[in-house]
Design brief:
The chain is built from 3 helices and 6 strands; from the N terminus they run ααββαββββ. By secondary structure, the chain is α+β, with helices and mostly antiparallel strands. It starts with a helix and ends with a strand. This is Hotdog fold thioesterase.
Amino acid sequence: MTLDQLQAALPAYFAPWVQALGLTAQAFDADSVTLRLPASEQLARTGGMLCGQAMLAAADTAMVLALVNHFGAFRPCTTVQMNSSFLRPLAGQDALVQARVLRAGKALAFGEIDIRGAQDGKSACRASTTYALL
């Protein structure tokens, strides 16, 4: 897998509104993928804080790309469960969304996501996910 292949998966497998988030593939390793979610007025709520809906859409997208990386190719899947905890507001900086595959079996995959400030490195949101592999 390469960053270019992960980036190419965004328009290939995700809806136009997900693509409008402006996500870019930043890094990957054997178990994880990191995307950058750029700060923008369209994704900010009162006070300039990144809205939770945008964070969770980015988290879900990053996890699908982590599964692409894990399997070496896109495998149809659907989110079964996502549990999130918002730790602090994120404002005035891009977000880094790191999705890690914890376990991927024949029918289910499990992962965790950390969303942190790109400048300060502080976690703003943590999520755990379960996906059905179709």
